[in-house]
Amino acid sequence: MAPTLDLDFVRAQFPAFSVEGLGRQGFFDNAGGSYMCAPVMERLDRFFRERKVQPYGPYEASRLGGEEMDEARHRLAAMMGVDTDEVSFGPSTTQNTYVLAQAFRQSMKPGDAIIVTNQDHEANSGPWRRLADAGFEVREWQIDPETGHLDPAKLDALLDDKVRLVCFPHCSNVVGEVNDVAAIVAKVHDAGAVACVDGVSYAPHGLPDVDRLGADIYLFSAYKTYGPHQGVMVIRRALAERLPNQAHFFNGDVLYKKFTPAGPDHAQVAACAGMADYIDLLHARHFGTETDPRIRATRVHDLMRAQEISLLQPLLDYLKSKNSVRLIGPSKAEGRAPTVAITADRPGADLAEALAPHEINAGGGDFYAVRPLKALGVGDEGVLRLSFVHYTSKGDIDRLIRALDHVL
């Protein structure tokens, strides 16, 4: 029998919950940035206090700083089932995607095509769409305008021997539905193309097994996954080796440096190892000892998702019962992330403001998802977005529903 998440233990790992006045707030803006876990904070503090020198030098502080940066890459890679040098870091997922788009621009030929969706956050849409300015064909895989669903059957009509790249989200930051990445990637590969997956809105709900998913590129943001403000980028070796270097010429043969033109943020890269620390803490608490990091990460992933699904369904049921509310995305918790966007009789930002006095922290607007919202018929009023993760409690959900009763 699978264990139940020890929520008291979980919340003890997040200092924000101990801050007077903050800890009692219902935090429902996690899709914009999660709380940072204590192991990440501790590593950041230690690096700034003891390692804030140029890393990889011969003296101890420098050597230790470099080792901690390497540790972050090594441990996260192992948990995702990829090689250490297939993981690199950059300032943000948006900037990482822009760099990759330039690499593809340089490697593609006139007449080549790429496929993007209108379900994505702009980070995994805009940079690729701009390749049309360089003469490449951009095709749009469109969502259902009522549900936001991205139908894999509609991809078949877009795939042909001209397509070099297909970019799509693991899940949308407003629709919330979890796409079947492995099945979509298989279609893409059968067509001889490369699959780029935006995992920003999925990774906070359980670190993915990228090898099992089969994606050639997998991108996510550490600051939404309990870590520091870094973009994490997995590029599988076969693809990375054939794309042109985007870094200093002397770094072109180093896989994890090849797509990061600027120097890394040493402290934040090193602190990303704290994300792995946190996953290991949860595993030890709930499952005991396990030597394989990939198994540990998978178990914790499933533990997080089970907690989220149990809390999500009552919220979805409540929202579906309100005639004045349009729920974006699926109404069943299985198969969607706990990122819930709604429209009502006033702008999303106004609803978020109305919730604040009820000690509910949420956001309203378009969340850089202008294209999917437009496709869904949502205008400038935007949506109210209620996003949570595994550290959210049943009490938080109950208070949210009571608050919504006052403002809807």
* SS class: alpha/beta
> Order of strands in the sheet with the most strands?
2-8-7-6-5-3-4
Between the first and last Cα atoms, what is the distance in angstroms?
40 Å
Please count the beta strands (DSSP E, at least 2 residues each). 13
- Estimate the strand proportion: 5-15%
Give helix % range. 25-40%
Molecular shape? globular
Order of helices and strands: HEHHEHEHEHEHEHEEHHHHEEHEEHEH
Show unreliable segments. Answer: none
Main sheet overview: 7 strands, mixed
The rounded Rg comes to 21 Å
Nearest-integer average pLDDT: 97
Number of helices: 15
Give me a quick take on this structure.
The protein is α/β, with parallel strands linked by helices and 408 residues long. It contains 15 helices and 13 strands.
How is this structure best described in words?
It contains 15 helices and 13 strands. It is of the alpha/beta class and 408 residues long. The strands form three sheets. A seven-stranded mixed sheet has the order 2-8-7-6-5-3-4, with helices on both faces. A four-stranded antiparallel sheet has the order 9-10-13-12. 48% of the residues are buried. The model has no long low-confidence stretch (mean pLDDT 97).
Descriptive key words:
4-stranded antiparallel β-sheet, 7-stranded mixed β-sheet, 15 helices, 408 residues, alpha/beta
Question: What is the topology?
Answer:
Blueprint: H1 7-12, E1 26-27, H2 38-51, H3 60-80, E2 87-90, H4 93-107, E3 113-117, H5 126-129, E4 137-141, H6 152-156, E5 163-169, H7 181-190, E6 194-198, H8 210-213, E7 217-221, E8 231-235, H9 237-242, H10 266-271, H11 273-287, H12 293-320, E9 326-327, E10 339-343, H13 348-355, E11 360-361, E12 363-365, H14 370-375, E13 383-387, H15 394-407
Parallel strand pairs: 1-11, 3-4, 3-5, 5-6, 6-7
Antiparallel strand pairs: 2-8, 7-8, 9-10, 10-13, 12-13
Helix pairs in contact: 2-11, 3-11, 3-12, 11-12
